[in-house]
């Protein structure tokens, strides 16, 4: 891949969409004559993408310093080339390239110059996560960077899957999506920053100092997030405490990398997966559904109450987890888990998938428990109500995240996660 920078004059063209993928570009070109310019992974190759009467066409623009060439037409810059095509129509393979409306970037398409980021706060499957700021509003953000070694067609496709679904959501218990950045390398996702890090890190760091009512509240908030997602027709497929983040005491579902907007999604069982959170019936046919998310939620409930924090079935290898859960073995409810929460956890993990509560029911049941545990809280908007006493300040949280080796731990965890496979 070329390491060259995209020329500033190209970047600033309102209709320059950088590495926008074909399927996303095609969606934006609605009427005949709608057009934009994109860039493939090598920046010297740009494409003019235009909707013509017979469909979408992609024409290669050769970009060299001081020239932009399409077919027989050559001008000094892309903008001049486009303007010339508008006034003096070019014909390629018997088809006239009629350009009518330049399609500008959408509201989720940000540019590198819109963000500032430096401090690393996390690491995941395909990238590194940083804390940063939006230049325009000074709002604190998290930036998920596609690492250079993953910045190929497949890596970009993964990143854009996450961006496409996240654009559709707006809920207090789902991490807010600000946008994606494809105008130049590195490719980025821009998200709401969560000052408390992941729930898993919080459970590890706070141990028994995290009260049972707070744990119940976390569980309830996560259920509100999952209920919203399911109502939007989306299976998360990676529900676990590591993928729930906390911001000012509010739990938010995050990491939509595996999420699918469908009611059944058949997964490739030959690829590594999160065996410990995987509903056992998935081994039969590879099908993940809303009720397999509910099973994973049950395992996450166990994580939320086990003190000190432990990986589910820590003493077992992945293969053993698979064998034992398929023959009916289940994690016993942790000692700190109130009985009624334990009963809900068992229902979520029961073998008969269709008997598991759906997310809405689960949310209602947990709301009941939450009300009992926190009698002074009003339930209206209770997903937003944080028990103040148990929450550290934003500042101390960020400091601990950066100073106490959390990153190293994260890297070790990711390594462990990737060892867990089919087994
Ligand atoms: N919006 C955010 N705010 C704060 N920290 C975040 C945010 N997004 C991710 N992180 C940190 O980065 C880690 C990896 O992010 P995640 O989205 O789970 O990536 P992956 O898909 O690679 O697992 C998280 O566990 C968390 O510690
Ligand atoms: Mg993750």
Give a quick rundown of the structure.
The protein has 423 residues and is α+β, with helices and mostly antiparallel strands.
Description:
This protein is an alpha+beta fold. It has 3 domains: 8-102, 2-Layer Sandwich (SHC Adaptor Protein); 109-192, Phosphorylase Kinase, domain 1 (2-Layer Sandwich), CATH 3.30.200.20; 199-393, Transferase(Phosphotransferase), domain 1, CATH 1.10.510.10. The chain is built from 13 helices and 18 strands. A hairpin with a 5-residue loop joins strand 1 and strand 2. The radius of gyration is 24 Å and the shape is elongated. Adenosine-5'-diphosphate binds next to strand 10 and strand 14.
Main attributes of the structure:
alpha+beta, SHC Adaptor Protein, Phosphorylase Kinase, domain 1, 18 strands, 21% strand, binds adenosine-5'-diphosphate, binds magnesium ion
The total of helices stands at: 13
Q: Ions, cofactors, ligands: which are bound?
A: adenosine-5'-diphosphate, magnesium ion
How would you sum up the global shape?
elongated
Estimated structural class = alpha+beta
Strand content: 15-25%
Per CATH, the class of the largest domain reads: Mainly Alpha
Helix content: 25-40%
Which architecture of the largest domain per CATH?
Orthogonal Bundle
Name the CATH superfamily classification of the largest domain. Answer: Transferase(Phosphotransferase) domain 1
Quaternary structure annotation: single chain
**Overall pLDDT metric:** 88
Compute the number of structural domains: 3
Distance between the termini: 36 Å
User: How large is the radius of gyration?
Assistant: 24 Å
Number of beta strands: 18
Q: List segments where confidence is low: pLDDT < 50 over at least 5 consecutive residues.
A: 379-419
Strand order of the largest sheet: 5-4-3-2-1-8
The CATH topology of the largest domain is what?
Transferase(Phosphotransferase), domain 1
Q: How is the biggest beta sheet arranged?
A: 6 strands, mixed
EC number: 2.7.10.2
Keywords: ATP-binding, Kinase, Nucleotide-binding, Transferase, Tyrosine-protein kinase
Pfam family, one: PK_Tyr_Ser-Thr
Protein name: Tyrosine-protein kinase
